[in-house]
Design brief:
- The complex is a heterotrimer.
- Chain A is mostly helical.
- Chain A is built from 12 helices and 3 strands, in the order E-H-E-E-H-H-H-H-H-H-H-H-H-H-H.
- In chain A, a hairpin with a 2-residue loop joins strand 2 and strand 3 (about 45).
- The longest helix of chain A is centred in the last third of the chain and has 34 residues, at about 255-290.
- Chain B is an all-alpha fold.
- Chain B is about 80% helix and about 0% strand.
- The chains are: A mainly alpha, B mainly alpha, C alpha+beta.
- Chain B: Keywords: Cell membrane, Membrane, Transmembrane, Transmembrane helix, Transport.
């Protein structure tokens, strides 16, 4: 199916182009501008070239935040993808249960991100939280405000709680798109349920799972509000991820130059993944049309 | 037997899913003193005092109104600009089409933290700080690309013969678009609106940075209260519960379209 | 291989069926003899696929029993029935090679690798897939994919029957003919029971020894292609099979004659006697090719007006007006074509009487 060729289509794109340019290009230019200057106040700025970049690249805390971020994002994928697929497999295929499951699954996705943090504070506080108090009452010391490991576990649990439903919804959509004939043929061929999963369901879900993996990787890479509310990046720096660190520099210390340089590097990392994401999507597309 | 085990496992998962939300609901129905003094699975003396405070104190309830305003504004702006653009991407080939599409998507992936300061600068220059439109525009950064992406998927599912027939029948483009095409992708528009609503509603960082008092969203009100009043847990929980309500209502209305939107593999 | 019997089978997709219209299948009683080539013919939505799925075990019927020889398999799942089924659209295991796809049903049953290899190669040979065996199944053309689906149906030697659910829909016409002949060959060589679902009468009549015609959840006739053509037991068979379909004229009984609009057509005594025991409404049925056309009046000839003549190559189709009825007549090419007024005769041998849609015989 060939599309019509017409450059007048640009007129249709124009509104989007203008609005996104206003929100993206101008601010991006500002960031670039900041990143090469030292700013003391209005009218007092000096060109410093690449210095902020040099400083940021050698920033030990940034390295730690990046390592932490990568570890976090990878763990997110390892936990959420299999769990989401399992949930999708267990979901009913018809009847009132479908709508009920969808609504329940979508619920965490519609809660403002800082409220997610609030929910998990109240849920895991050792003194008043249901989970925190129960664990402590069982004789296991647990306090996410004081112990790094506990903080990690809590942030992880929160993240899995918050976003696994998205993976489940995607996987479910992928499963529902498989025509009945495949399951019927598998029954006739005498396939075990493992074989059905391995040879029918998993291959057919490849497209949506690619999207799920990349989306979850991206969004967990940008995570800010939830851990910020829950742990404030602490104890110490142990749950300080890239966005939290960036906001700390920019707003907390008001170091505009380094923050801008950091922003650009951060954005480039994201762009790199974004490109991979796009390539992967394209490949999925052509793979299916064959 | 196996089906039963599945259902039990699924029910258990949903139980865990609901539990933290239930706990917040539980807290919201108790006074702060009660929360700190007693540990109880369900409120012994349920009170609506927290909710009453939110509904009577303008610094609280105006937060909800502000949020509603900018979320609605954003959804409208995103949809109206994205509709023609998505049509262009789904029907035409033109110079730079792929690049523009990719560039739009990169904005969906941009960390809001990166744009924090420049946004503040930019909107200060235009004297837009602390207005609803500022937040609505800022959220366009990630919602417009998203809307274009979802809508393009729905539109590509509609055969082009429909357009051709309409043009042969003498429809002008705007008339065709509004009276024929838009009704055809109603479901797609519903799903898109849902996602725009959702992402604008849940965002905190930009909304908090671009507002001071007049347009301060509820999410920001909540974080500031955390640090200011020495944590009134009951009030905080009640505010949290109220932020879930609009979302829950929205999902309930689009629940049947939701599966369809997801089925296209677009989020 | 086995004889398959359906006893009083009925199926409804509703959980609590109430009236007969809730049933997709109504009271089916049929026997499929071992080694027969059957076609199941009917319009879409008549219950063909439902019946097939009940035979294979993908569906458990609401009522009735399914027997393989004398074994009751009604509640058994397909994998325990030892049956093969090919679907309308190609079903492939995308991640596997063509060889693995064909081997899949065998491996699931734990056959040893040598047997698997031998069988797969035989089937690939028959379907011209040998060259593709090592390729990924996902990259092949629609034709090849459907051949693989067919192959998975044919690969097991010991199946009770192979069921085909409109398997050639997606194949292009030239290859369709070729594959149908292949299936026929396989049938003749191996004497397997084949049940072939289709809505295409040509496909059914050329493929099968016996054809079952289904209509609104019932088997209205089972017979050889000739029987279906010459003795349609149900009005539906009359106009579904043959081109153009059978002519039907509403009529009343008057002794041994069928009368309508003042005209009368003689019936044989036996038919007339039986018809008197039945309730109406009655209809007279005759195939267009058996209706005689004359250019002059005579015994039992009825006057008609010729409305239209269509040239179909080796024959012509006449549309004639007989009182208030329009009839189609099929004339061989060499016969002269009357115009304006003509006379038709209903030969007794080919004139059928239908009471309430069913043949009186």
């Amino acid at each position: 199916m060939d599309k019509w060729e017409s450059n007048r289509a640009w007129f249709l794109i124009l509104p989007v182009f203008v609005i996104v340019a206003f929100s993206a290009i101008i601010p991006l230019m500002t960031v670039v501008n900041y990143s090469v200057q030292d700013i003391f106040g209005p009218g007092q700025r000096f060109f410093v070239g690449m210095e902020w970049f040099r400083e940021v690249i050698h920033d030990e805390r940034l390295h730690n935040a990046l390592v932490r971020q990568l570890a976090f994002s990878c763990m997110v994928l390892l936990l959420e993808i299999p769990l989401g697929v399992l949930i999708a497999l267990a979901m009913p295929k018809k009847g009132w249960g479908v709508a009920a499951c969808l609504v329940l699954l979508a619920l965490p996705l519609l809660i403002p991100w800082n409220v997610i943090g609030t929910i998990w504070i109240t849920f895991t506080r050792p003194d008043i939280g249901l989970l925190g108090k129960t664990i402590n009452d069982m004789g296991i010391a647990f306090d996410h405000t004081a112990r790094p490991l506990d903080a990690w576990i809590t942030v992880m649990a929160m993240e899995v709680w918050h976003w696994t439903p998205l993976v489940a919804l995607l996987a479910y959509a992928g499963l529902r798109a498989i025509p009945d004939a495949y399951y019927q043929a598998a029954k006739i061929d005498g396939a075990s349920s493992w074989a059905v999963f391995r040879h029918i369901q998993l291959p057919k879900m490849r497209g949506v799972l690619t999207i799920a993996v990349l989306l979850r990787f991206m969004d967990s890479f940008l995570i800010y509000a939830e851990p910020f509310v829950l742990t404030g990046g602490g104890p110490g720096d142990t749950t300080t991820f890239l966005s939290i660190y960036l906001v700390k520099i920019a707003v907390g210390q008001f170091d505009l130059g380094p923050a801008a340089a950091f922003s650009l590097i951060y954005f480039l990392i994201v762009l790199l993944f974004c490109w991979l994401f796009y390539q992967a999507l394209q490949n999925v597309g052509t793979g299916e049309s064959k | 037997m196996r089906v039963q085990k599945r259902t039990i496992a699924l029910s258990f998962y949903f139980f865990l899913l609901i539990l933290p939300i239930y706990w917040m609901l539980n807290m919201s129905l108790r006074t702060n003193a009660d929360i700190l003094a007693n540990f109880t699975l369900f409120p012994r003396n349920p009170t609506l005092a927290n909710y009453l405070k939110i509904f009577t104190d303008p610094s609280w309830y105006s937060g909800y109104i502000n949020s509603m305003i900018y979320v609605s504004l954003n959804t409208i702006i995103s949809l109206t600009t994205a509709l023609p653009a998505a049509y262009a991407f789904s029907r035409f080939r033109f110079i730079g089409d792929k690049h523009v599409f990719f560039w739009l998507l990169t904005n969906r992936m941009a960390p809001p933290a990166v744009f924090l300061l420049p946004f503040f600068q930019l909107y200060s220059t235009f004297h837009l700080i602390d207005t609803h439109i500022a937040v609505a525009l800022a959220h366009c950064l990630f919602n417009v690309p998203l809307a274009v992406w979802i809508l393009e998927g729905f539109m590509s599912g509609i055969p082009r013969e429909i357009d051709e027939t309409a043009f042969i029948d003498g429809y002008s483009f705007p008339r065709f678009f509004l009276t024929v095409f838009v009704p055809l992708i109603r479901a797609g528009i519903g799903v898109t609106a849902f996602f725009c609503f959702m992402f604008s509603w849940v965002e905190l960082l930009l909304a908090r940075t671009l507002t001071i008092t007049n347009a301060k969203p509820i999410v920001a009100t909540m974080t500031r209260t955390v640090s200011a009043t020495g944590l009134d847990w009951g009030l905080l929980a009640a505010a949290g519960v109220l932020t879930i309500v609009p979302g829950a209502l929205v999902i309930w209305f689009v629940r049947n379209h939701l599966a369809k939107g997801f089925a296209l593999g677009r989020v | 291989m086995a004889r398959i019997t359906l006893q009083e089978v009925a199926h409804s997709y509703r959980r609590h069926p109430k009236d007969p219209s809730d049933y997709a299948l109504k009271n089916i009683d049929t026997v499929w003899e071992d080694g027969g080539a059957y076609a199941l013919l009917g319009p879409s939505g008549c219950g063909k696929t439902t019946m097939l799925n009940i035979i294979s075990g993908l569906l458990t019927p609401t009522r009735g029993r399914v027997l393989y020889d004398d074994r009751d398999v009604t509640r058994l799942p397909p994998e325990q029935r030892n049956i093969a089924q090919v679907f309308q659209f190609p079903v492939l295991y995308d991640t596997m090679s063509v060889f693995d796809n064909l081997a899949f049903p065998l491996r699931n049953r734990g056959l040893d690798p040598q047997t698997v290899r031998r069988r797969v190669q035989e089937v690939a040979e028959v379907l011209d897939l040998t060259a593709d065996l090592k390729k990924k199944a996902a990259g092949l053309s629609a034709d090849a994919k459907q051949k693989i689906s067919l192959g998975r149906g044919l690969v097991r030697e010991d199946v009770a029957a192979i069921l085909f659910d409109e398997p050639l829909t997606v194949i292009d016409p030239h290859l369709k003919w070729h594959l149908r002949r292949k299936l026929k060959e396989i049938h003749e060589r191996l004497r397997l029971t084949l049940i072939y679902v289709t809505h295409d009468q040509v496909e059914a009549l050329t493929f099968a020894d016996k054809v079952l015609v289904m209509y609104e959840g019932e088997v209205v006739q089972m017979g050889t292609p000739t029987e279906l053509f010459e003795e349609p037991r149900h009005k539906f068979v009359g106009y579904f099979i043959g081109s153009p379909g059978m002519n039907f004229i509403p009529c009343k009984l008057d002794g041994a004659r069928a009368v309508f609009d003042g005209a009368a057509v003689p019936l044989d005594e036996e038919t007339a006697r039986r018809a008197r025991e039945k309730e109406g409404p009655f209809e007279l049925g005759i195939r267009p090719m058996y209706l005689e056309v004359h250019d002059s009046p005579g015994d039992d000839r009825l006057p008609v007006k010729v409305l239209k003549v269509e040239d179909q190559g080796i024959f012509r189709i006449l549309t004639v007006q007989l009182a208030s009825n329009t009839l189609k007549v099929r004339l061989p090419e060499e016969k002269p074509v009357p115009s304006g007024n003509a006379w038709v005769r209903f030969p007794r041998r080919w004139t059928k009487l239908y009471a309430n849609g069913r043949l009186v015989a």
